Amino acid sequence: MIACVAVVGHQNNPLYLQSFTGADDALKLHHIVHCSLDVIDERVNNPKRSVITLNESYLGLLYPTESYKVYGYLSNTKVKFLVVTTDLDVKDTDIRSFFRRFHAAYVDAVSNPFHVPGKKIISRIFAVRVSGIVKAFAPGTYG
Amino acid sequence: MAPLVPKTGDAIFASIDRVNAELFTLTYGAMVRQLLTDLEEVDVVNKQLDQMGYNIGARLIDEFLAKSNVSRCVDFKETADVIAKVGLKMFLGVTASVSNWDPEGSSFSLVLDDNPLVDFVELPDTFQGLHYCNILSGVIRGALEMVSMKTEITWIRDMLHGDDAYELRVKLLKQIPEEYPYKDDE
């Protein structure tokens, strides 16, 4: 079950944060996302860069806590996509395809001429699409 | 000649130079955004878009007539069909449908199900009065005026405001006979 998804800009400014569980642990999810940003920075500034990453880098499992797992994905414009899931065994391919769809929805939202780059994403269509992608993801892990 | 018209639109579209659709959409979006920043009032921007469209249409009609070789339209109904099937197809790549003729045959509705100008666009709440595609109404008005038809064009349905398609109402006001700017004895 996906607990929350987040999009963070290249200056670590939050662009979109949506939680799909009950509302009371929203703050905890924010905190987890924030900590994961540090992990991403570490990975990005590491000698892992010897392998030239052409465009998107799927960063994989960033941060396993006792009940959550956080996966990360970095686009070539340094926009970070994070997903926090409560599932214990998620297939890598599922997460990768999730991120691809998420990235596509993000690109469409950002192409809106009324979107200001660097500000939060207020597109309702984006929110609906992300909810759809999240809902479509959950059954796949049991397949 | 009439049965050939729908096919001609596709053929011309395939033969002329084309530009990337996303580049076109993003350029138009940036232009509207800049107009909003410069002019600030939604009504003024609507008028400005219409005026820009008018200037474009006045020049576009020559290219249209040169490339499409359509014969002179017998009546307004034929004009409507040519705009919808040949003109829009040639320049935007979409076909529109013509409907809702009024009893005198002087006004019709042009319905567009698909509009490349508005891909990715979502109007924020502060600009709800904006007719984002107003340039289209200006283009049609400008083009028709150059072929001696004075028209009035209004938006009936707009997908950015929640409707299911784009509908333009085109009303023929009058046909202007051709005037020669020179005196006969010069």
Automatic annotation (TrEMBL), chain A:
Example of a GO cellular component annotation carried by this entry: cytoplasm
InterPro entries: Sedlin, TRAPPC2L
Membrane-spanning residues: none
GO annotation terms (biological process): endoplasmic reticulum to Golgi vesicle-mediated transport
Superkingdom as given in the UniProt entry: Eukaryota
Family, per entry: Belongs to the TRAPP small subunits family. Sedlin subfamily.
Protein's name in the database: Trafficking protein particle complex subunit 2-like protein
Native source species: Zingiber officinale (Ginger)
Native organism taxonomy: Eukaryota, Viridiplantae, Streptophyta, Embryophyta, Tracheophyta
UniProtKB/TrEMBL annotation, chain B:
Keyword Transport among record annotations: yes
Broad class of the protein's primary localization: Golgi
GO cellular component: Golgi apparatus; TRAPP complex
Alphabetical keyword list: ER-Golgi transport, Golgi apparatus, Transport
Compartments, as annotated in UniProt: Golgi apparatus, cis-Golgi network
Assembly mode: Homodimer.
Stated role: May play a role in vesicular transport from endoplasmic reticulum to Golgi.
Family stated for the protein in its record: Belongs to the TRAPP small subunits family. BET3 subfamily.
Protein's name in the database: Trafficking protein particle complex subunit
UniProt organism field: Zingiber officinale (Ginger)
Lineage: Eukaryota, Viridiplantae, Streptophyta, Embryophyta, Tracheophyta
